[in-house]
Structures are given as structure tokens and as C-alpha cells.
Structure to design on (556 residues):
């Protein structure tokens, strides 16, 4: 069982690594794949909350938004060096997650969903009102984040492999967290909060740390998202986007980060494919997603696990 | 007599108009089994909830080894040495029996804010968890998901989790409930063997078990303690007979 948890994601990583050389090397395909990987990272971070902690957040797009807007603010100030941009963006997202999580995690169930949604909307409206960064219209970056002064990230292949490396790093991190002492407490509290308290743990602390870590990874995904499109708009922070992320996690299966990864890739690829078939693709996509939830118990990961 | 490990003074709790704990004072000493008996709805579980920190009393004081525990969180009480079992089995169903016990070991051994290294691979945790499982006779079921254990085995696991905490006081809420005769006998034997290491507050409906095991018995009726004494004294007490024991004893 354990080898399969690693075998599936490793196969996906290998496929993503060779994809540019087996016919997916054109701009369009690479853009699509990097989008899939970026949302893969975001979904993996959300799966730490949903699958690991039982914390169903409907405001996770705000974490990407904070990361993306950190890039914007720094870009506006002509700060583009990665070793400045990435830590600041990640810390900003982790800080936002810590502040909002400190309140949200005091609630549970539907209240938690609603309060994370509310914080997400707050972030959305804040972004919309930032007129110096284009308000509703968004902000076009002067350029991508630089790496030691070079414009390496503008190279399509370089960007592809940057996304892949960070994706693998995030997957490994979340997988390690879930297997650690910390992850054991987080999962125990999800399954049986009273028992977890009764042996001596305060679940709140573990959940808050998980929330901050998920926010940090979300922020990193936001940095990549901004770089991928060289454009950032409040639409990155809509609650629909948060819903999409939640959907990716459920579609893939909440049993581990590889589920979220598969869910994100499937979501992005199906979305792209349907959009090419018809302009009314949203009408089809909705029911397809609903059918998936009904028939794919345990998500895509659950189907692969079946013997 | 030694200083009590656990002492309740004038504990009071009501739900709306219903007084469920009505000025309860009792104590528990190291090395004794103090049984708490009384009819259904007498307020026994509610009392355990207040001692363990699940519910806050409206009035009164809870002292643990002389320290005021009345307003302490459940987790802090647990780490200080107060372990409880639940009347309705409370385990982590997705974890194996071993992981359930290891979680309790983990709570008292080092920080749990460790983000790397497989918790499942920590031999120090696993060895102590296995010891606790062995004490209740569950070592051969260590790897089984807790959800698939039989009812009796879950009751054993419940006790093993409490033991894995290495507590000073055990609060056991009907540990024999729903177990077969053989399992009940085995659990009773285990409790008898454990007595010396803890103070045990035992809620139990199985009267023969209570009278065989307990050093002292307190009787609760409608939230009020109506008697405390040795098994012999309780058996001879006319008030208790009327309120609870009936022809049973
Ligand atoms: N959370 C609650 N809210 C209201 N009433 C409660 C609650 N918990 C217990 N009770 C009531 O308190 C009384 C004592 O319950 P309990 O402590 O479970 O009794 P016992 O364990 O002795 O059978 C019962 O009448 C029960 O209905
Ligand atoms: Mg009860």
C-alpha cells in the first residue's frame, strides 16, 4: 500500500518531466501543464487541511492571491529578485493564514466553511480596491521574477522545470508532514477530537500550524501563477476559485497529497478540453464534476488503489 | 492515610433546571479502587466529565495532588496525569490499535511539533504503546485498524490508551459495559492488578465486580452522594438498598 502512495505521484512527476520532449513542448501545452502544476501545488496544500486536518476551507484562493499580490506590490516597487520576492510572498501568505486561521479555527463544520469564505471575500474586495495596482482590471507585471539578476524564468522550459521541482518539493513536504508526529496529532484530531484532547493535545495549535503551512504553500503557488501569466487580477481570489481548489482535492481523493495532485491535473486538463469543444463548456463541466463525486468514491486516488 | 490524589469539594453542575451534580465531595487515594455506583441518570458520567475537564462545574473545587484543577483544560489535566476512559468507546477508528496507544505515548514524550521523521517508525513510541497493549492483552491485535476491533477489544483498547498515558489517576466509565462474561472477567483481573500503581475511580454497573474489586464505594443518586464506605458498609446501608441496590446485593 505504501509503495503505491509514492508510485503514482512519481509516475506523474516522470510524465511531467518528459512531456516537453514528447510532443508537449509548444507554448500552449507548456502553459497548460504549468497551470496544472501550479494548481497541483495549491490543491496539495489544501489537501493538508481538508484531508489531513478535516478543515474544509472555502477561502484557499486568498492564499494564492496574497502570494500573487505580493509579487505585484514588489514589482511596482521594482523589486523582482526571487530571493526577495519568494520569501516575502510566502511569509505574507503564511501571515495572512495565521491571522485569519487564528479566528477561523475556533469554529468548526459549516461555520468554518463560512468564515474562511468570508475571509476570502475580504481579500478579494481588498484586491479589487487597490487602485494603484489596477483595481478590478488587474496589474500587468513589468517582467517575471528574476533569478540572481537573470531572466531565466522567462525561458519556457526553465519555468516548466521550476514548477515541477517546486511541485515535487511541496508534495514531499506535505507527505512528510502527514507521516510525522505533527501529522499524527492533526489526523487524530480530525478523526476524534475528544480522544485527542483526552490524551493531552490541544488540537487548535496543530490546526493553526497546518493552516499557516498550507497558506505558505498557497502563497508560493501564487508567485508562480503571477509569473506564469505575468498578470494578476482580483479574479484570482474569487470564491469560485476557492471552490475549484476544493473540488480538485475531492475529485482526486482526500487520502493524501497525490490525490489532490491528480485532481488538479485532471481538473485543468478536462477544463481545457471541454473549453475547446464548446463555448458552453461550463454547462457540461458542472455535471461532470458532480458525477465524479458520486461515482469516484475516494476520488481518482481511490480508484487507482482498488485491486 | 496518605494525602488524596484527587479530591472533589462541593462540586455542583446543572443543565437548565436539572441539577445533575449536587454538592459532591469525595476523594481518591493512591493505590485504591474507589467505585462510584448509582442508577442510570444519577450523574456519574457528568461527574467524570467535570473531573476530566470535558465540562466545567458551576461551583466547587477539583484538587489533583493538592493542585487546583477546576479551570484547567482537558489536555493539561491529561498531561498532568489524569486519564479517563469513555462510557461510549472513544478511539481513533482509522488508526491501528498500536497507533492509538502510540498517540497517547507521544503526548507525554517530547514535543509533537516535529514535522519530519515518520512517527510510525519511532521505536520508543511503539515499544511503550505495545507495552500498554500487552497489559490489556491486545498485543496480537496491534496492527489491526481500531475500527475493525470487536466491541470487547475496543473496550480493552480504551483502557490501553489510558495506560499508555502513564497516568496517576484513572477515571473509568463503565469499562465492562457491553463486554462478554469472559472479557469482563479478564478486564476485572487487569484492573485488580493495576490498582497498586494508580488511584482508580471506577464507574460500573456490574455489582459483583464492584464489590469484589473496590476498596471503597460511593453511591450517587440524583446527583447527590448518599453514602461512601467499604463494600461491607455499603452492603449493610439501608438507604443505599432503597435507592439503588434493591435485591441485587
Ligand atoms: N449535556 C447535557 N444536557 C442536558 N442534560 C444532560 C446532559 N448530559 C447529561 N444530562 C442529563 O444528566 C443526567 C445525568 O446523566 P449522566 O451523568 O450521563 O448519568 P449516568 O452516567 O449516571 O447514567 C441525566 O438525566 C441526563 O439526561
Ligand atoms: Mg453514564
Amino acid at each position: 500500500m505504501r509503495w503505491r502512495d509514492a508510485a503514482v505521484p512519481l509516475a506523474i512527476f516522470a510524465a511531467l518531466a518528459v512531456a516537453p520532449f514528447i510532443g508537449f513542448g509548444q507554448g500552449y501545452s507548456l502553459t497548460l501543464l504549468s497551470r496544472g502544476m501550479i494548481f497541483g501545488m495549491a490543491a496539495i496544500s489544501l489537501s493538508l487541511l481538508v484531508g489531513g486536518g478535516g478543515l474544509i476551507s472555502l477561502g484557499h484562493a486568498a492564499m494564492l492571491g496574497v502570494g500573487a499580490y505580493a509579487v505585484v506590490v514588489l514589482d511596482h516597487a521594482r523589486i523582482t529578485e526571487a530571493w526577495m520576492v519568494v520569501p516575502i510572498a510566502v511569509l505574507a501568505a503564511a501571515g495572512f493564514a495565521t491571522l485569519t486561521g487564528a479566528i477561523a479555527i475556533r469554529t468548526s463544520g459549516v461555520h468554518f466553511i463560512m468564515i474562511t469564505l468570508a475571509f476570502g471575500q475580504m481579500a478579494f474586495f481588498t484586491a479589487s480596491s487597490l487602485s494603484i495596482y489596477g483595481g478590478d482590471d488587474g496589474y500587468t507585471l513589468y517582467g517575471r521574477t528574476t533569478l540572481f539578476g537573470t531572466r531565466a524564468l522567462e525561458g519556457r522550459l526553465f519555468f516548466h522545470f521550476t514548477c515541477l521541482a517546486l511541485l515535487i518539493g511541496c508534495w514531499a513536504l506535505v507527505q512528510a508532514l502527514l507521516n510525522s508526529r505533527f501529522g499524527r496529532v492533526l489526523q487524530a484530531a480530525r478523526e476524534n477530537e475528544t480522544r485527542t484532547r483526552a490524551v493531552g493535545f490541544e488540537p487548535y495549535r496543530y490546526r493553526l500550524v497546518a493552516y499557516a503551512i498550507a497558506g505558505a504553500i498557497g502563497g508560493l503557488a501564487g508567485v508562480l501563477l503571477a509569473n506564469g501569466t505575468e498578470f494578476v487580477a482580483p479574479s484570482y481570489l474569487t470564491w469560485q476559485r476557492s471552490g475549484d481548489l476544493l473540488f480538485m482535492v475531492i475529485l482526486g481523493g482526500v487520502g493524501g497529497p497525490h490525490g489532490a495532485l491528480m485532481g488538479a491535473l485532471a481538473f485543468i486538463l478536462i477544463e481545457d478540453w471541454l473549453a475547446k469543444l464548446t463555448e458552453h463548456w461550463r454547462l457540461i463541466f458542472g455535471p461532470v464534476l458532480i458525477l465524479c463525486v458520486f461515482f469516484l468514491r475516494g476520488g481518482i486516488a481511490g480508484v487507482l488503489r482498488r485491486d | 492515610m496518605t494525602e488524596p490524589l484527587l479530591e472533589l469539594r462541593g462540586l455542583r453542575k446543572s443543565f437548565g433546571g436539572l441539577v445533575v451534580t449536587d454538592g459532591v465531595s469525595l476523594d481518591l487515594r493512591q493505590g485504591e479502587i474507589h467505585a462510584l455506583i448509582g442508577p442510570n441518570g444519577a450523574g456519574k458520567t457528568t461527574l467524570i466529565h467535570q473531573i476530566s475537564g470535558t465540562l466545567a462545574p458551576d461551583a466547587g473545587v477539583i484538587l489533583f495532588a493538592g493542585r487546583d484543577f477546576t479551570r484547567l483544560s482537558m489536555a493539561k489535566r491529561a498531561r498532568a496525569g489524569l486519564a479517563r476512559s469513555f462510557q461510549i468507546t472513544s478511539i481513533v477508528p482509522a488508526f491501528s490499535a498500536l497507533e492509538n496507544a502510540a498517540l497517547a505515548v507521544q503526548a507525554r514524550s517530547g514535543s509533537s511539533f516535529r514535522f519530519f521523521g515518520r512517527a510510525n517508525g519511532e521505536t520508543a513510541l511503539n515499544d511503550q504503546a505495545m507495552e500498554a497493549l500487552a497489559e490489556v492483552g491486545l498485543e496480537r491485535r496491534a496492527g489491526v485498524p481500531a475500527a475493525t476491533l470487536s466491541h470487547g477489544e475496543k473496550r480493552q483498547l480504551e483502557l490501553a490508551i489510558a495506560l499508555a498515558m502513564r497516568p496517576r489517576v484513572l477515571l473509568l466509565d463503565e469499562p465492562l459495559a457491553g463486554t462478554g462474561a469472559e472479557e469482563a472477567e479478564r478486564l476485572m483481573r487487569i484492573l485488580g492488578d493495576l490498582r497498586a500503581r494508580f488511584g482508580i475511580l471506577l464507574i460500573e454497573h456490574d455489582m459483583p465486580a464492584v464489590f469484589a474489586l473496590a476498596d471503597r464505594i460511593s453511591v450517587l443518586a440524583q446527583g447527590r452522594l448518599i453514602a461512601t464506605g467499604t463494600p461491607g458498609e455499603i452492603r449493610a446501608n439501608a438507604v443505599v438498598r432503597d435507592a439503588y441496590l434493591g435485591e441485587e446485593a
